TrEMBL record:
This is Flavin-nucleotide-binding protein. It holds the Pfam family Pyridox_ox_2. It comes from Vibrio navarrensis. InterPro entries: Pyridox_Oxase-rel, Split_barrel_FMN-bd. PANTHER family: 5-NITROIMIDAZOLE ANTIBIOTICS RESISTANCE PROTEIN, NIMA-FAMILY-RELATED PROTEIN-RELATED, FLAVIN-NUCLEOTIDE-BINDING PROTEIN.
Amino acid sequence: MLSNSKRTQINKAARKAVFDTEKLHQIIDESLIAHIAIEEESGPVVIPMLAWRVEDHVYIHGARNSRLIKSLQAGTATCLTFTLFDGWVLARSAFHHSAHYRCAVVFGCFHVIDDEQEKDRLLNHFIEQIAPGRTQQVRLSNHKELTATQLLAIPLNEASVKISAFGVNDDEADLDRPVWAGVLPYRTVVGPLIPVPEHAGYPAPDYSSAYGERWHQPASSSE
């Protein structure tokens, strides 16, 4: 079960609240992009960052001189959001048009991963997550590259999940209105791979195991 704190309590459309930790993990793993809030002298800033999960922590990385990294490595409280858009809900009235989505909000503080071996392992984990088997083929990061990279982690101790998937919710008075109503789904398709020109002859690797149904399906040739 997810944490139940004042910050994670969902008041608006509470029926969409989900308390299953597995759903939280699925949203983070599929999104891989976190919008992260920091406070600067000029005001609040929200910055999108690549982010990945290993067990019960989320990790981000960046250059040591990054304003986001410098702010978060000091242990400043922050908020991360992950959002997956699944489609438009088209109702019989303009007011009841809405969307299907899955979103997660994580509260807490980041801490620095200093150990170089652990940093290397976690960065490679991210590569394996998006392209299984690739760390066995590419040149791995050297000491200079690892030193230039700051790796931060935040625990999933305080988080909320909200999922909207309830379909059309028209007023009863509008049900006989002669207009199409339903859901316009959105779907992310991964692939096919696009090689660099000089390696066009290399066989394309198969990364479909990382994406399941989102992996592109080649068009079947007609007879």
